[in-house]
Amino acid sequence: MTLNDACNFMSELTGISVMLINSNKDISSFYKKHHFHNAQKQLTESYLKATTKELPVNTISFIQDYLFINFVIIKTEKDLIFVGPYINQDMTEASIKLLKENYELDDLNTIDYKAYRDNYLLKEDADILHDCRVLLNSTGFDASSFHQEYNYNEKSSRVKGWEYQRKNFENLINERYRIEQEMMERIYRGDDVGAINSYRKIHNNVKYMVSYGGSPNDSKVSSGITRSTVRMAAINAGLPPIIIDEISGKSSRIIKNLNSRDDMYKENERMIQTFAQAINRFKKKSYSNVVYCAIHLFESYYNTKLSIEETAERLGVSECHLINQFKKETGLTPNAYLNNYRIRQAKRLLRSSQLSVQQIAEDVGIFDNNYFVKFFKRSVGVTPSAYRKSYYSEEKTK
């Protein structure tokens, strides 16, 4: 992945601008787009040019202007990257009033200022630093070798003890980054148990950081960061893009509808496990990528009205090619494999739940109950009800 592609990917993922700076013209464009008031000395064209020139190589510099607008400059040996702007604290009517008094900003219109700030996402510096490290790591840099510096305005009325808190943030972030590297390596190996253990360490790290002001509202953003990290590991492991997108997209849709931090945490665990297991299976596979991806889709969407035509279209091959290749490699037609998998899932539900036969039929993607009973009997030799009764009878005799 090129640095420019990684910047675009990170920007789309996080919703925060990540801009590769190639010339003074780019700096000028950044200034013109984001400068709002003459009090923003750190967002002037001259300041940006001087700062990028003086900034040491391999530095991640956090900058905050007098209006509490934040951005980051990353400097490598050859490249400059601007991340942001973003905001890292809410501004109430009272705090805006105090800001105007402190800086004698009589010409700062409160409504316009609030509208200006609404253009930018609220995000913790810790998460921004993590994004920067993921970006660098994904493009071949050693992110741990980059120095972080914090250039906040000296009159900032931030929380008392911020300097102490910032140092603790740095320690926590460094530890979080180390554990994430460990998690990525375990996902790469297909070690789902190890990967989840690493994620739980990260979760404990994040819970401690929340005590310094993190908001539960940031959990969806944090889940997006986790997805990004896991996707990188899956890409490096060679997992086919269609499977990566399917697992990641499903998790994203689930997270979108959740409000509980704990529920999001559980979903992240499920996603990590699914990715690691998929990678493990992929590395042990004896099928071509097309057949392997088809099997993955069948086992992911068996409980829907999934058609072979739709599967072939998603895989970018003809239906005829998919059927022939699938039968050649597995000995079964795609429909036979899908239906066999549905029967396996139905047997599992009959053994492990008290759901009605009709509900189980629907849960495995067969929406005609009569057809399900006949199909189950033809495949297993007994009706679903008889199978369940026989299973419980055997359990009692054990």
Task: Characterize the largest beta sheet: strand count, sense, and whether it forms a barrel.
Answer: 5 strands, mixed
| N→C terminal distance | 57 Å
Compute the number of strand runs.
Answer: 5
Q: How many structural domains does the protein architecture include?
A: 3
Taken from the alpha-carbon principal axes, the silhouette is elongated
Give the averaged pLDDT, no decimals.
87
Percent of residues in beta strands?
Answer: 5-15%
List keywords for this structure.
398 residues; alpha+beta; Arc Repressor Mutant, subunit A; five-stranded mixed beta sheet
Topology:
Blueprint: H1 3-14, E1 18-21, H2 24-34, H3 45-54, E2 59-64, E3 70-75, E4 80-86, H4 93-103, H5 110-117, H6 125-138, E5 147-151, H7 162-189, H8 192-210, H9 219-236, H10 241-256, H11 261-284, H12 289-301, H13 308-315, H14 319-330, H15 334-352, H16 357-363, H17 369-380, H18 384-397
Parallel strand pairs: 2-5
Antiparallel strand pairs: 1-4, 2-3, 3-4
Helix pairs in contact: 1-6, 6-7, 6-9, 7-8, 7-9, 7-11, 8-11, 9-10, 9-11, 10-11, 12-15, 13-14, 15-18
